[in-house]
């Protein structure tokens, strides 16, 4: 659970951080890079110890699918104001 939470927290930080709030294009690029990184983790190409934790979880639960993580990335984009998200 910890590894999944950490990945979700890091995903949320991409859209909540000052970098994202200052420039929508930067946020889109960061989310696209994060999605690519997720695919890399799924293949065992980890960039840091937190990526490795998620990969280890995937190894322990091989039936775990990537789709919920991709949905999380899409959801983060929808949860932002402006052209990517929804006005509430």
Keywords, separated by commas or semicolons:
single chain, 88 residues, mainly alpha, 5 helices
The ordered string of helix (H) and strand (E) elements is HHHHH
Q: Work out the oligomeric state of the chains in this entry.
A: single chain
- SS element count, helices: 5
Range of strand content: under 5%
Mean pLDDT across the residues is 89
Radius of gyration: 13 Å
- Envelope shape: elongated
| Low confidence ranges | none
Structural class: mainly alpha
**What's the number of extended β-strand segments?**
0
End-to-end distance: 31 Å
Share of residues in helices: over 70%
Largest sheet: none
Structural notes for this entry:
- By secondary structure, the protein is mostly helical.
- Helices cover 72% and strands 0% of the residues.
- It has five helices and no strands.
- Helix 1 packs parallel to helix 5 and helix 3 packs antiparallel against helix 5.
- It is elongated, with a radius of gyration of 13 Å.
- The chain starts with a helix and ends in a 10-residue tail after the last helix.
- The mean pLDDT is 89.
Question: What does this entry show, briefly?
Answer:
The protein is mostly helical. The chain contains five helices and no strands. The protein is 72% helix and 0% strand.
Question: Strands, helices and their partners?
Answer:
Blueprint: H1 2-16, H2 18-22, H3 24-42, H4 49-60, H5 67-78
């Amino acid at each position: 659970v910890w590894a999944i939470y950490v990945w979700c927290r890091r995903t949320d930080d991409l859209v909540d951080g000052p970098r994202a709030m200052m420039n929508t294009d930067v946020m889109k690029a960061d989310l696209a890079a994060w999605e690519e990184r997720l695919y890399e983790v799924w293949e065992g190409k980890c960039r840091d110890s937190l990526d490795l934790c998620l990969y280890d979880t995937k190894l322990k639960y091989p039936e775990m699918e990537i789709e919920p993580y991709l949905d999380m990335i899409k959801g983060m984009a929808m949860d932002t104001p402006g052209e990517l998200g929804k006005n509430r």
